[in-house]
Write a structure and sequence with these properties.
Two copies of one chain form a homodimer.
Chain A: H1 9-16, H2 20-28, H3 35-48, H4 54-61, E1 66-71, H5 77-92, E2 96-101, H6 106-118, E3 123-126, H7 134-141, E4 146-149, E5 160-163, H8 165-178, E6 184-189, H9 194-209, E7 219-222, H10 235-248, E8 255-258, H11 261-273, E9 283-288, E10 301-304, H12 307-324, E11 332-335, E12 338-340
Parallel strand pairs in A: 1-2, 1-3, 3-4, 4-5, 5-11, 6-7, 6-8, 8-9, 9-10
Antiparallel strand pairs in A: 10-12
Helix pairs in contact in A: 1-2, 5-12, 6-7, 8-9, 10-11
The structure holds a DNA duplex (30 and 30 nucleotides).
Amino acid sequence: MAQGRRHTLRDIAETLNLSVNTVSRALSGKDGIGDRTRALVRAEAERVGYVPNTLARSLVLGSAMTLGLVITNPSNPFYAQLISGIELRARAHGYSLLLVVTDESEEIEARGAESLLRSSVSGAIVVPVQGRADPWRRLGGVGVPTVLLNRDLPELGYPFVGTDNELGAYQATAHAIARGARSIVVLEEDLPITTIANRIAGFRRAMTEAGLPVPRGSVISVPTRRLEEAALPWQPEQAYRVARRLLRRGTLPDAVVVGNDYFALGLYRALHEHGLKVPADMMVIGFGDYPFSEFLQPSLTTVRLPALEVGSTAVDLLLEQIADGPAEEPRRQLIAPTLVTRDSTRPPIPESRTRPLDGH
Amino acid sequence: MAQGRRHTLRDIAETLNLSVNTVSRALSGKDGIGDRTRALVRAEAERVGYVPNTLARSLVLGSAMTLGLVITNPSNPFYAQLISGIELRARAHGYSLLLVVTDESEEIEARGAESLLRSSVSGAIVVPVQGRADPWRRLGGVGVPTVLLNRDLPELGYPFVGTDNELGAYQATAHAIARGARSIVVLEEDLPITTIANRIAGFRRAMTEAGLPVPRGSVISVPTRRLEEAALPWQPEQAYRVARRLLRRGTLPDAVVVGNDYFALGLYRALHEHGLKVPADMMVIGFGDYPFSEFLQPSLTTVRLPALEVGSTAVDLLLEQIADGPAEEPRRQLIAPTLVTRDSTRPPIPESRTRPLDGH
DNA sequence: CTCTCGTGCATTAACGTTAATGTCCGGCCG
DNA sequence: CGGCCGGACATTAACGTTAATGCACGAGAG
């Protein structure tokens, strides 16, 4: 798998007795080159299998045509989809993707930011760990356009693209209320991120608007266990434990809204073990609409996150910023999620028969 | 978020009245520099926030300290984990990761290979689409060490790291047989990849060893639907349709071994709709041990793939090759999967009480 | 005292590309 | 016929770094 080193513009120039510059211009389609010469150069480049050296090109051009993508955990289906969407869009615009997986570690995040800086990325799309903002302030400080994804760091004033989590949680909660729930509990991760704070706010708003109380203990925290090596979503297990404790409490809530569909899995198991039926004994509403959620028994009502749209919007915002320089008013784009109604909240006995159950 | 351009070695050299080379050597810890000077340089670099330019460094060093990672679909939990593992290991060795998502498209794959080539990656880890081998032959041809992951292209003779799919399917099938199954059906994707061929071989071997027939129709193909934009695992739906057809056939198999745990979801739904119970009426064995599989009702017996180990082994193999040059005998590493026994194959009525059911 | 050697830095060259100037030459215009 | 213009190419410089070599100076040995 070895042999010959790469050919350069100089190699072609020498065999054709031309100058390096002429070869460069001939290949890149600039004018000032005769048709005969251009054809000759092209043929020779083809013959030796010339591959331009992006490093040299980027160095002189001052742009690496590379975007940094900083993600906490690809095993989160939302981020997995995000990666796909961003990679596709970036490549369509001629950009390569430099990936950093932080695994929720501030240390890795800081080193990742430094690495992107050294690599002269044209811009970065970042899901911050949200402990410290410094690494990204530094990146922006030296003129690297940066878009924050999913978790905002308002202190930075950077463009931001995310899901409207407040709205999502509101929809979920309001839906449960519409289906007759009066006491509702929320299960959320214990990460200090805006995402979660917004969801809790949405939950409270829905409850308040319906005139329902939000007693202490309505929001339950699920501890995040960090694995030693590489991010594994061990979240269902943690949620299961928390749910088991919840079910051992005297009074049960009518519905539980969980922070992500993994949690719903743990909750389902706990409910099943207690002989409780979904949705008859308790309604469950997820967050994320993960690939499996539609196929659970019962199928999970959940808030679908527009991962692809969030991803491509982030790329667009970033490219816009790369092209035009920083906008004076950084844009914040919140993309609305949509509630997908399934069996985990379908009331078992319809109260009236005047309307058919809504299909799909 | 804008202001001052990046400082270079030259900036530091000029303010300190030193030569560029001295500054370079001082910062990189080479000897031949006085202690006083070194300290001065370090302080000044710190003061102006000097960031070395990797592009220039790579250009002169001839190595970009970058690995290419080519993946078909991050939404496949196996690949998602793989990305985490590989990124972690690569970064630990000082390499950055350039990500290409092919989405099973030969065209994107070819362009991705070209892109990696232009970027002068130090090496590449590739899950090939497995239509054409050319792009990767080209990459190796110009001396870029390449390790194939999960899907082999034997014609290339490149190092390969993967799961022992033959063994996995054998274990799954043998397990079903041990639990009393006599007629078994396999559901596999319709991709022309070695992975799947090997699994089918393992299935046949288990059946043959047990003296069971493998009638026509034992291996059922599930069509892969490609989404227009970005890879979304729409596989449960497709498996569901195929399973529905299967269940409408007259005689039902005792067990179904599916090619990935998404398929098990679709199968579960079809079975549920037909009023069939798992494992009483039919056993189900998955492949992948996805994060949700343990939490299905009933929990899914499945072949756990050692994603992290596969990933880090691939990186190790690649780094070895980068350091020592291509080995004369390219190494093929098959990592054994492990069968995780759960409720979807637990016989409802133990035949003998002499042995307790095996715990976890 | 001279010769040699080593220390500490400067100078030069190189990586492969693109951009900015230079130069030659043929043709066209007045 | 002289001057001028522009096409087609060459030459030079630059991007920011590292490696190879050059050079001055002081110390130690004979």
